[in-house]
TrEMBL record:
The chain crosses the membrane at residues 360-381. It comes from Cryobacterium gelidum. Keywords: ATP-binding, Kinase, Membrane, Nucleotide-binding, Serine/threonine-protein kinase, Transferase, Transmembrane, Transmembrane helix. SUPFAM superfamilies: Protein kinase-like (PK-like). This is non-specific serine/threonine protein kinase. It is an enzyme of class 2 (transferase). It comes from the Bacteria. Gene3D superfamilies: 3.30.10.20, Phosphorylase Kinase, domain 1, Transferase(Phosphotransferase) domain 1. One of its GO terms (molecular function) is ATP binding. It catalyses: L-seryl-[protein] + ATP = O-phospho-L-seryl-[protein] + ADP + H(+); L-threonyl-[protein] + ATP = O-phospho-L-threonyl-[protein] + ADP + H(+). Residues 385-450, 522-588, 589-655 form the PASTA domain.
Amino acid sequence: MSVPSTDPMIGRLIDGRYQVRSRIARGGMATVYLATDLRLERRVAIKIMHGHLADDSAFKIRFIQEARSAARLAHPNVVNVFDQGQDADMAYLVMEYLPGITLRDLLKDYGRLTAEQTLDILEAVLSGLAAAHKAGIVHRDVKPENVLLADDGRIKISDFGLARAVNNNTATGQALLGTIAYLSPELVTRGIADARSDIYALGIMAFEMLTGEQPYVGEAPMQIAYQHANDTVPMPSSKVVSVPRELDELVLWATARDPEDRPRDARAMLDQLHDVSALVRGGTEELALQQTMVLPANLRTDAKALADAETQVLGARLAPTKPPAATLLGMHPVGTGPIGPPDSGDLLTKKADKRKRRGFWLFALVIVIAVALGGTGWYFGSGPGSDVMVPDFVSASPEAASSELTELGLTPEPSGAFSATIAEGLVIGTDPNAGSRVPQDSTVRVIVSQGLQPITLPKLAGATQADASAAITELNAVVGSIDPVFNGEVPEGTVLSASKESDGADVSAGGEYFEGLTVNLVVSLGVIPNVDGKTVAAATDILVGKNLLVVSGEQTFSDTVDEGDVITARVPEGTVREGATLTLVISRGPEPVTVPNVIGMSWSDGKKALTALGFKLSYNPGADAIAALLSVASTDPVAGTSATKGSTITIKPTNPFA
């Protein structure tokens, strides 16, 4: 895919190391590009500060602070920072490249997330923030745009551009930094932030994931800031009734107006999240039996109206049905019995006799069951009906396995099979498998390794990469590395050569080998595109589209290529792979030539002298008829003038009759 040539950064080599490929995103302070680290041959994301901010020392310091803050962290849920520097007047930051989307993109596509999805994302973000808080770093800009969801499932937090050390107390003293929708009350009112400010922003983000909207909206930023400072964040279930109560309480805890009522840092909230996750993922029935976690007192007060309503509903659902008033007073409905109580002495005697008879029969039943179970256990445990468990003989010698099976009362039967993991002559396993229980005197097959199974590898050179890979896999061999190289004689996608990974021996022509063989393939990328005669922009687009790097080289004269266009692209010697650098040779147009002095020369000799230098001639053709009588009288341009090769020279002959 070609990169638009309108961005001057595309194709630029930064600091002699990072080749810019394409633009990924643009923000208020910097633009992020996809680049290739030529030294380590890997793709990276390079963040370049906008040029108009280069003279602003505050922005420069903040940009460098991002590198230093993130570089102090080494955590799977934090985007890695590799390098930071300055090229001319351009400050840049090099980070790991994560193909994927942001949490903001996910919310735009799906509106809101399930409780389980929210828990997964919160766990990853809290893990990264816990590492930052432990290192003494406050992120200060936690929001969905800074949560990256990689294509391979990894979740990472990025953009520590507003980060500060915790012990700085992070008072801005200037305009509020960060996104207004996620600012904590103390940042709005006092401009002070610590680890608990990150927790507040994360709570707002959790609300947004669960409901698909932010808790506070307004036409102006100050309206939203006022709500953060003076209102209590509602429960997510007030917007989406299916949100579990445990997540309601977690959001309320994280978004308490008073920082003292929030988790002290990301680690404290992560520990609570694990408990919440176990409850939420356990299912609704299990949740009904679990004890709800207790919020701090002030949060219970903030949520009192909703909690009281829920308690009343729950109490009504769990309370026993109230019996009729007559029954409570000792009365019976008509026809069901006397109003007065029966004789208590007779009633107690009957109940005692009934208990004695029941106890005797229960005792007799227990004895019978015990005898039956004991006899059955003896018969199957150590008597004639007992089974034997087959031991695990993997990698044991066949003799040892046969001897042990014989001692157990089983009959060993040797057999063989090929194996890529067990050495030849040792036991692969048994049939029945180890751990199985079989009757005594049963036959157990002892499977002995015959080593690697022989295979016949077909000719691989000249086959397509797909066909070669399929042939290798079908033979229980392994496709190793794929090395794509440019080749002008073999079509793209065709295997050029194949080799054994173990010793590099060539197996392009196939042959007799063994299963488990790892085969490395060299595959053709086809011919390098011909860009002769094209403009520099067009040639760059074509070559970058083939994952080649381009630099401008020397400029030279050309009689056939227009000035400023590409004469040729110089290819490095040897094997050319993706990422190789091609040098463009640029045309300066035709080489200028000095007009010679041919005045006084014979007409024929003067013409020859001018055409030999590449000039075209303009003259009266009638002069050729009497050329022997004529000589050159004048030229235009005159002798000694510099003219372009291929330009026209006007010549006039002398008058033979003068």
